Amino acid sequence: MMEKDDMMLDELANKEYEFGFVTDIDMDISEVGLNEDTVRFISAKKNEPQWLLDWRMKGFKAFQKQEMPQWQNFKMPDIDFQSISYYAAPKKQAKYASLDEVDPELLRTFEKLGIPMSEQKQLAGVAVDVVFDSVSVSTTYKEHLNEMGIIFCSISEAVKNHPELVQKYLGTVVPHTDNTFASLNTAVFSDGSFVYIPKGVRCPMELSTYFRINAENTGQFERTLIIADEDSYVSYLEGCTAPMRDENQLHAAVVELIALKGAEIKYSTVQNWYPGDKDGKGGIFNFVTKRGACRGDHSKISWTQVETGSAITWKYPSLILQGDHSSGEFYSVAVTNNMQIADTGTKIHHIGANTKSRIISKGISAGRGQNSYRGLVQMGSKAKNARNFTQCDSLLIGDQCGAHTFPYIESKNNTATIEHEATTSKIGEDQVFYLNQRGIDAEQAIALIVNGYAKEVLNQLPMEFAVEAQKLLSLTLEGSVG
Amino acid sequence: MLSIKNLHANIEGKEILKGINLEVNAGEVHAIMGPNGSGKSSLASVLAGRENYEVTEGEVWLDGKNLLDMKPEERAREGVFLAFQYPVEIPGVSNINFLRTALSEIRIHRNLPPLSAKEFLKMTKEKQELVEFEAKLANRSLNQGFSGGEKKRNEVFQLAMLDPKLSILDETDSGLDIDALRIVSNGINKLRSADNAFVLITHYQRLLEYIVPDFVHVLYNGQIVRSGTKELALELEEKGYDWLKEELQGQESINTK
Ligand SMILES: Nc1ncnc2c1ncn2[C@@H]1O[C@H](COP(=O)(O)OP(=O)(O)OP(=O)(O)O)[C@@H](O)[C@H]1O
Ligand SMILES: [Mg+2]
């Protein structure tokens, strides 16, 4: 067993990032560095109205005053905010009527990613809004959605065409003062997606965006805002891939979700940013602030995330359950291999009466990866009969990795019920052997076991994504045997 | 088909198998009996390629191929099947998906074309009926929450699906109720052919009434100390192992003199 282990671990260690390549497209890049002029430059580039520039400035001022967070379970890397370029847009900014008009280089990039646009277009029921570095390149299915009154566009477009909606909701869930990274995002956010579902409308297809970091030294600062008006429904998918770089790149996105009375939002992410090499050189620093507000009674938001990439993931998609009978869910699979670090989890604030929440977290650690679950469940004084169920499981592959859980509970209401279950297990040599004995090699065996372990979460993803996520899990863990 | 020559194996530096010799031909059924801890499961594990056992001496051939040179999955694809004494649970992995993966690997190895979903399901249904395995178990997670007997029956269902050359059943009969023992035995009898062989590890003569062995061997202290026909099993059932042990100790003390 020892010998095979070593061999497999060796293979694992030498496993390279499959999506590492740089696309050669003309870029329009701002100079490195961050000051008020940078913020003005970005705002001017995007022809933004004054109110938005003012808000960016407020974010910048907040950012200057803030300290880096210190409570996470890893040593915060030194990030030199002055050495980053805060704006990059492909020079060819025209919107394309058909794929034939899109830069072929870009299309090849998508093909390398295994998500060829040509195929995506055919994927019935999926409208894809591609954010390539910072500016949306192509949006499909727009007309059909338009007819239903659904707005699905880049946030820059929304600022132009629906300023009243943006102004009403932007920054109301994640304020510009929230944390260092959220403030930074407020100041310099490049682009991102905007979704509005009108009253009573059920969005007939999954809305999907593929994010991608491309330019060297360019931080990625996405801003996503999704509003589900009363009794509406939407399912939104976010996927991402970053090319291989030696230096560390910063990704500091903000996502805000707002569900009004009786509305439901499902938000799914598959994150596979470049994780760095086997020695921890390079890779994305993924510091993301995601929060959803169930503002109305009987509203519902669920987060599903599959996190397989990034050198560091710092991410706690949270929920504010304001409306009575509102409910929230958080389903997460986080994988760390080699030197990857994931510090992820959720915060759920029960404010309204009879609010319900469910947390299912599955951490998988291999190599020398470190995986922490951090969760806070808060029951407010008015959260009568509120309920939470938390299950957080950790799976270890090999004996050099680590799994940690930090569950916090604060209850100001004695009618509230909070249940917490946690397990830690290792992939058993006997499980792998059992599968080997049936003709399945070690790599496939690990893939089967891990996918089985994560099934409850993967089941939450829409079909096409679930398949992609399964492949990613196997890919990330290729070669690791415990 | 299977030829084991002077096989020695250690686990954690301790010698468990101490020179096993065994020939199994196609079409035969061999039973291996022996007291607890004598090395029966160890022999099965070594044949299947479990890596915590270290083979220190000897050879194992399967139809002219050196089994000891192969990885466990290669042995399986070559047609070695081990029905485990303690089948493991694998949460979240559906029995059917797992079998589909296993079967497709084995078929690739045997140069057989892949089965369509429809063909696979048809085959699943046939084999389920053959070994009377409940369909609802086939669709559950692999052994998860199965009763002891259900796990054993799942092993036999898998055996039926994967159609191995050499099947080693490690105490598949223990834990089965009286009816299940008969059903499982019937299933195995139906799976017997002139091209395959079975090695049944068991403590109970009862199994051998259903599946009549051509040979019965007694494994004691890492060696096959006696071989015979089904009458040997009857004798053991009646008298236990003490007489054998005494006889052997007698021999040993003569040898050391
Ligand atoms: N991992 C291990 N470490 C140390 N000793 C082991 C290990 N595995 C098996 N053994 C020892 O090897 C010997 C043979 O065990 P084995 O399981 O092969 O016996 P068996 O004949 O199958 O017994 P039973 O009839 O109880 O199933 C026993 O003494 C057992 O304790
Ligand atoms: Mg045994």
Automatic annotation (TrEMBL), chain A:
Residues making up the signal peptide according to the UniProt record: none
Organism domain of life: Bacteria
Residue ranges occupied by any SUF system FeS cluster assembly SufBD core domain in the UniProt entry: 211-452
Pfam families, sorted: SUFBD_core, SufBD_N
InterPro entries in the cross-refs: Fe-S_cluster_assembly_SufBD, SUF_FeS_clus_asmbl_SufB, SUF_FeS_clus_asmbl_SufBD_core, SUF_FeS_clus_asmbl_SufBD_sf, SufBD_N
One example of a Gene Ontology biological process annotation: iron-sulfur cluster assembly
Residue intervals of the SUF system FeS cluster assembly SufBD N-terminal domain: 121-203
SUPFAM superfamilies, A to Z: Stabilizer of iron transporter SufD
Family that this chain belongs to: Belongs to the iron-sulfur cluster assembly SufBD family.
UniProt name for this protein: Iron-regulated ABC transporter membrane component SufB
Source species: Pedobacter hartonius
TrEMBL record, chain B:
InterPro entries documented for this protein: AAA+_ATPase, ABC_transporter-like_ATP-bd, FeS-cluster_ATPase_SufC, P-loop_NTPase
GO molecular-function term, one example from the UniProt record: ATP hydrolysis activity
Pfam families for the chain: ABC_tran
Keyword tags: ATP-binding, Nucleotide-binding
Superkingdom: Bacteria
Signal peptide (UniProt feature, chain positions): none
Keyword Protease: no
Database matches in SUPFAM superfamilies: P-loop containing nucleoside triphosphate hydrolases
Domain ABC transporter: 2-246
Keyword ATP-binding tagged: yes
Annotated family: Belongs to the ABC transporter superfamily. Ycf16 family.
Protein name: Iron-regulated ABC transporter ATPase subunit SufC
Species in which this protein is naturally found: Pedobacter hartonius
